[in-house]
Design goal:
Blueprint: H1 8-15, E1 32-38, H2 45-57, E2 61-69, H3 72-75, H4 85-105, H5 113-120, H6 127-132
Parallel strand pairs: 1-2
The structure holds flavin mononucleotide (FMN).
Amino acid sequence: MYNGTISGSFKNALDWLKLLGDRNPPYLTDKVVGLISTAGGMQGLQAVNTMEFVVRALRGSAVPLVMPIAQAWKAFDKQGVAQDAQLTEQLHALGREVARGSCQFALQRPTKADAAKAETKITPLSDEEAKIA
Ligand SMILES: Cc1cc2nc3c(=O)[nH]c(=O)nc-3n(C[C@H](O)[C@H](O)[C@H](O)COP(=O)(O)O)c2cc1C
């Protein structure tokens, strides 16, 4: 979170998703999104809410469970490992929600052939790898 919202560079990256406008269906249609924010202060919900507006504008689906992580500087170590078992469990729960939502959309093949080809290169983590990650 930057000054009560998302950072300018992150917004710029999101705006480049305009490039997905040629897809059929376009943008993030049928994509399931999990929203996580990190804040230096005591709460980060504003950044999550802002991201939710962007997901909607790009026609994606954000799962209801969100993870605003306050005081992120003490929530993770230098390797990015969560310092609190409860935070780890919450992040896993969010991952499970995204996977569950994705299964709903996976029943049909929504994208053009070139987009589908690009997606086949993404290999999901195994359960064991997910535990380490
Ligand atoms: C320009 C700037 C503005 C920030 N504004 C806020 C803020 O409004 N609220 C807050 O909780 N943290 C704020 N922070 C702290 C960041 O949310 C925190 O450092 C977070 O971990 C940012 O991730 P980053 O280090 O990857 O940029 C700000 C940091 C910067 C650099």
